[in-house]
Amino acid sequence: MTALPDATRKRISPRSAVTIVVAILLIVSMTFNLGLFFAGPSTGLERAATASLPVKEPAGKAGDEQLAYLLVKLQLQTRSEMASHFTRKQSAIPGVDKLYQRLLVKNLILPAAVAGNIFSEVVPQATSGRAWVKMVVDQPRNPKNRGDEEALNLLAELRKGAATAERNTGDAFYYAEPIKAKAACMYCHGEPKGASDPYFPQYTKEGWRAGDIVGAVIARVVPEEAAGG
């Protein structure tokens, strides 16, 4: 990623950083809804409300903790929005739904790909490099989804049943929530385990089942002082 010019390296508050991310997510969501409108007018109108991405501010959290929480919530919301397009009925015309799915896959309009690309670019720039948020899994297909030691420890906590997990190491604050497999994930990651992925034959299916905790969305925020702010 290209370093920001010195003139632009100004302090950006957590609220401003989240506002930037939300604006981009709204554009993505509204773009999808326009596509749905042309695929099936009634469906597009019925789903117009999905253009909003409601994320409540956390009670009892402020500063870096609040930023980490909101970033995780926003990425989970984005993933959910993307996944819904694979299982949503788009048209009464035979074959249109399958064609729509293939179009999404061909253009890598996938939950992990879309969310990962948006957040990996926007968040570090919006926070002057203080924060990142990403999907972390044990055995990732994408090397970018590998987590550091703290992130993997938080993922282990979630697998044991914790609803959320967080840790302040002094060097950074981490916040994590689980990623649960949905019906849309089964096309590429479901059963039978070891079978060829129908869309990406270089990979094999992991044997996921709906509801499995397959990873986590984790945010890491470095204190402003430690980042030289």
Structural class of the secondary structure composition? alpha+beta
Largest sheet: 4 strands, antiparallel
DSSP helical segment count: 7
Oligomer: single chain
Query: Helix coverage percent of residues?
Result: 40-55%
Radius of gyration: 18 Å
Amino- and carboxy-terminal Cα gap: 20 Å
Assign an overall shape: globular
Number of domains: 1
**Could you name the ranges where pLDDT drops below 50 across 5 or more consecutive residues?**
1-9, 30-53
Mean pLDDT: 78
Our estimate of the beta-strand percent is: 5-15%
How does this model look, in words?
This protein is of the alpha+beta class and 229 residues long. Helix content is 43%, strand content 12%. It has a four-stranded antiparallel β-sheet, sandwiched between helices. Helix 1 packs parallel to helix 3 (63-87) and helix 1 runs antiparallel to helix 5. The longest helix has 26 residues, at 14-39. The protein is globular.
Give me a quick take on this structure.
With 229 residues, the protein is an alpha+beta fold. The protein has one domain (13-221).
What attributes characterize this protein structure?
229 residues; alpha+beta; four-stranded antiparallel β-sheet; 43% helix; globular
Sequence-ordered SSE layout with sheet pairings:
Layout: H1 14-39, H2 41-46, H3 63-87, H4 96-106, H5 111-126, E1 131-136, H6 149-159, E2 165-168, E3 173-180, H7 186-189, E4 213-221
Antiparallel strand pairs: 1-4, 2-3, 3-4
Helix pairs in contact: 1-3, 1-5, 3-5
